[in-house]
Amino acid sequence: MTEEDTTPLAGFTIGVTAARRAEEFGTLLTRRGATVVSAPAIRIIPLSDDTELERVTREIIVNPPKIVVGTTGIGFRGWMEAAEGWGLAEELKEVMGSARLLARGPKVMGAMRAADLREEWSPASESSAEVLDRLLEEGVEGVRIAVQLHGATTEWEPQADVCEVLREAGAVVIPVPVYRWVPPQDLTQIDRMIEMIVTGGLDCVTFTSAPAVASILTRAKELGLIEPLLYALRTRVLAAVVGPITSAPLDELSVPTTAPQRSRLGALARHVAEELPRRANRIRAAGHTLSVRGGCVVVDSEVKNLPPAAMSLMRALARHPGRVVAREELLATLPGGGDDTHAVETAIARLRSCLGAPKIIQTVVKRGYRLAVDHAECADGED
Question: Assign residue 359 a region: left if phi > 0, alpha if psi is -120 to 50, beta otherwise?
Fold first, then answer.
C-alpha cells in the first residue's frame, strides 16, 4: 500500500462542527492525512438542568399522550436519565408503556428497548417525513401526540414543521424539547470557521447534526456573511453530512451535499476520504500537476505548505487558470492589502520559491502574472 493510499486526505483542510465525539471524528480524518479545524457549532444544555423539559415531562405524566414519537437515541436516553434525576422515571415509563411508541430510526428504537419499552413501528428510511405520513394517513383529529424534538427551532431547521402539520391536521401536539442546543458561549472558533469557508481556507466542512448546520447559518447571517458562505458551499467548499436529516437545512438553500450510505461517523470519514481526492482540482502548468487546496498546494503529489500571502496569490491565479491577473487585483487579495504593487512582486517570488518550480508562475510584462498552463488556450487568447 502506498503513502497516498493510506493518507488520501493529505493536503486537505477539513472543518469539523460536531459538538459530541468531535475528537474521535477528527482523529478518523487526521489518520487519513487531513488537517482538521474544529469549531463546535452548538452547546448542549444538560437535560437535568432543563426546567422546560421537566415541566413538559410532568405535564405528560398528568395528562398522558396517546402517541409518543421518538426522534433521536441520545435524546430519548437523556430524557429517561433526566426523569430519573427528578424522581419521575417510573411514572414516565408507565405513561410510555401505555402509549403507542413510534421510533424514527434504529438508534431511538434501541433507546426505547433499553428502557424496557417496545416501539410499535419504525420506518426503514429513518425519516421523520415517513412517520408524519403514517400518522396523517391514520388520522390524528383530536389525538394527543408527544413529539420528541432535537435542538432549538430556527428558521433553518424544518423539524418544527412536523408539529405544525400535525396541529393543522387536528392533533393536540406536545413538543418535548429533548437534546436542546444553544450557540457556543465563545463564538471565536465558529467565526473563524465561517471566515475560512468564505475565503476558501477549507476544502470541506462536515456536519453531523441539523442543529450544527442551523447554528453556522444563523451566525453567518449575524455576521453579514450568509450570501458569501452559501456561495462558497455551492461552489468550492464541499459540504459533507452524516445523513439526510442533517442535510435538510442545506437542501432548502440549494447547497449540494454529499453523504455516506450509512449515517455513522466512521462511514462519513471514509466517504470524505473518497470524495475529496476525486473532486480535487488538477491543473497542468509548466510540466507539473497542481492541486490548489484550502491551506496548501500539492505539486506532483508533494504537499507544499504556503504562507498566507503566497496562498492568497495562488488562489487568485488558480481561480481562472491561464488568465492574466493584474498586479492591482493580486494586491487586493494579499492579507492587509496596501497600495504598493512591489508587495506583489515580493510575494510572487516567495510563492515561486515555496512551490519549488518557479516556471509555474509566468510573468506577463506590464500586465501581471498567470499560471503557465500546459496545452490550453488562456482566457485572454494567449497561449
Answer: alpha
- Summarised one tens digit per residue, pLDDT across range 141-171 is 999 999 998 654 555 555 557 898 999 999 9
Cα–Cα distance for residue pair 297/314, rounded to 1 Å: 8
Query: What are the beta bridge partners of residue 204?
Result: 14, 238
Cut 0.85: pTM above it: no
Residue 280, burial from CB neighbour count under 10 angstroms (0-12, 13-18, 19+):
middle
Dihedral class, residue 236 (left if φ above 0, else alpha if ψ from -120 to 50, else beta): alpha
Cell digits of residue 143: 389525538
Backbone angles phi, psi at 121, to 5 degrees: -160, 150
Q: Taking the domains of the chain in order of start, what are their residue ranges?
A: 3-42+184-279, 47-181, 283-371
Q: What are the CA-CA distances from residue 263 to residues 32, 257, 260 (Å)?
A: 19, 14, 7
Q: What is the CA radius of gyration of the chain?
A: 26
User: What backbone torsions phi and psi does residue 34 show, to the nearest 5 degrees?
Assistant: -75, 155
Bridge partners for 291 per DSSP: 298
Are 3-42+184-279 and 283-371 the same fold in CATH? no
- 221: Cα separation from own chain's centroid: 16
CA angle 314, 294, 263 (to 5 degrees): 155
The number of residues in the chain equals: 383
**Class for domain 3-42+184-279, per CATH?**
alpha beta
Domain range 47-181, its CATH number among 3.40.50.10090, 3.10.180.10, 3.40.30.10, 1.10.357.10: 3.40.50.10090
Domain 283-371: state its class.
mainly alpha
**What is the rounded distance in angstroms from the CA atom of residue 199 to the CA atom of residue 116?**
51
Phi, psi of 356 (to 5 degrees): 75, 10
> Each residue of 65-105: pLDDT tens digit?
999 999 888 889 989 999 999 999 999 999 999 999 999 99
Q: How many angstroms separate the CA atoms of 108 and 149, rounded?
A: 12
Q: How far apart are CA 130 and CA 104, in angstroms?
A: 9
Kindly report the number of other CB atoms within 10 A of residue 5's CB atom: 7
Q: Grid coordinates representing 3?
A: 503513502
